[in-house]
Amino acid sequence: xxxxxxxxxxxxxxxxxxxxxxxxxxxxxxxxxxxxxxxxxxxxxxxxxxxxxxxxxxxxxxxxxxxxxxxxxxxxxxxxxxxxxxxxxxxxxxxxxxxxxxxxxxxxxxxxxxxxxxxxxxxxxxxxxxxxxxxxxxxxxxxxxxxxxxxxxxxxxxxxxxxxxxxxxxxxxxxxxxxxxxxxxxxxxxxxxxxxxxxxxxxxxxxxxxxxxxxxxxxxxxxxxxxxxxxxxxxxxxxxxxxxxxxxxxxxxxxxxxxxxxxxxxxxxxxxxxxxxxxxxxxxxxxxxxxxxxxxxxxxxxxxxxxxxxxxxxxxxxxxxxxxxxxxxxxxxxxxxxxxxxxxxxxxxxxxxxxxxxxxxxxxxxxxxxxxxxxxxxxxxxxxxxxxxxxxxxxxxxxxxxxxxxxxxxxxxxxxxxxxxxxxxxxxxxxxxxxxxxxxxxxxxxxxxxxxxxxxxxxxxxxxxxxxxxxxxxxxxxxxxxxxxxxxxxxxxxxxxxxxxxxxxxxxxxxxxxxxxxxxxxxxxxxxxxxxxxxxxxxxxxxxxxxxxxxxxxxxxxxxxxxxxxxxxxxxxxxxxxxxxxxxxxxxxxxxxxxxxxxxxxxxxxxxxxxxxxxxx
Length: 617
Fold this sequence. Notes:
Layout: E1 29-39, E2 46-56, E3 68-73, H1 81-93, E4 96-99, E5 109-112, E6 119-124, E7 135-143, E8 147-150, E9 153-157, E10 168-170, E11 177-189, E12 195-199, E13 203-207, E14 211-216, E15 227-230, E16 233-244, H2 253-256, E17 264-271, E18 281-288, E19 293-296, E20 302-309, E21 314-325, H3 340-347, H4 368-379, H5 384-398, H6 403-406, H7 415-419, H8 426-439, E22 444-450, E23 466-474, E24 478-482, E25 500-505, E26 514-516, E27 529-536, H9 548-551, E28 554-556, H10 562-572, H11 574-616
Parallel strand pairs: 1-11, 19-28
Antiparallel strand pairs: 1-2, 2-7, 3-6, 4-7, 5-6, 8-9, 9-15, 10-11, 11-14, 12-15, 13-14, 16-21, 16-27, 17-20, 17-26, 18-21, 19-20, 22-23, 22-25, 23-24
Helix pairs in contact: 4-8, 5-8, 10-11
């Protein structure tokens, strides 16, 4: 399970050279930082341009040539040292510093900080700044850190302003005032896919002949990293493989090949499902062996049963495609946001939703501590989305993502332990939020799937890592996805085509894999099970693909025949296998007995007919 790649805030470091202060007007000095991020469709990087302008507004003052201006270029957090070093090289190789007025190159030095802290670009105050002679520097460099491109889906990030950022400075001695401005523009070309999401939502758009410029308010960037998401559809290919081990060393293959029920294991696996929120649809390219049964459970999960030999190694393989879609930004439908009173009245009318509000082993919603925390958040909220966002912030404030736990056996601890300080990954973020929501009376369930998906060449070919998030029921919408692991003011709520949904759970279970075997099988060993999911540009031979009902008829949960349960009993239990072996013997003995009885009856009849003939002689 992974933490979202984009959890970070980029800082800007503003250092001002030496000045001489006397008396003030409206503003005696003006410092403007204009950051422009340019993206050209198809590229894996952006061009970052930072123009720094220092002006003297009062003829009585000036900036001397002492000191220097320092620009900070950050590293991408949570990256490997080798990756950071490569990216630093890419940035510095493309780095230029010029006088923005004359376009002449300006001398600078680069200081590399500790890994994770970024680099400094130091530019000396090479000229005096006076009333009619501003100091204007343009710094440019390229970086992959602010863009994530996956086929036709592009996410652009922009620098945040530090939470301590000031927009006005007043000298305590002289009373002189300095105006500080931080402008941000993100520029894209006309070929980029449609805009799907943007944050913050207070922005301006300027349409040019060949470009579109998005302009963000400085105040909205304090502690918040703007992001723009382009693209409304993504296609993924999935490859599920399960190498099933040999568990039966008794029954020879020559016998089971004649009567496979003598040595059979049955594996029940969940397969990717359809989901309405992102119009997720699944098509199958190949599936081996053909499932003996496909069930659609009450959650909408797809569960397939595969019968494989127990007396030799085998493999279950399912390959297919998943398409997900989201609305454009201009067409996006708002999530229903009723008052809490109205919301709870609506959900109370459905008895089917009750199972999504009860406590479980890992969602301890009836615990006094969780109840207390949940009620505080409830009291602070007026509408449903108020409550969701308050819960989201609470989880982010309480939990801290632990990379070491993510790379370990990752033992599940439950909501209460996580909220009280235990190490957490996406499982704990989701479990904690579900427990809080259920304590508040909001129907909530766990969603499992795969996120942060990329192309095959950038994927771990050994298999994708599962991710867990939350879904709540919203009338007139359906199941609403919420990913609290994405720690950001830009909360990941609603449609998202960077992840796919595989299965959902209303109780404490987080896996639908079941193994039915007459042999001793290690049911928790899934080392031979893998799912690889990666983005592709288009689906090949789509007209030849299958939906699940094309393979075999789908059975609704609890509507199957008793014969299917008998099939599992006979083939995968000791008693069942005993019956398989004994039944033919019993049938043979029964047949022999019947034959002997028939022979006896016939012999008696023949003897009874012969006796009268003897008497006539």
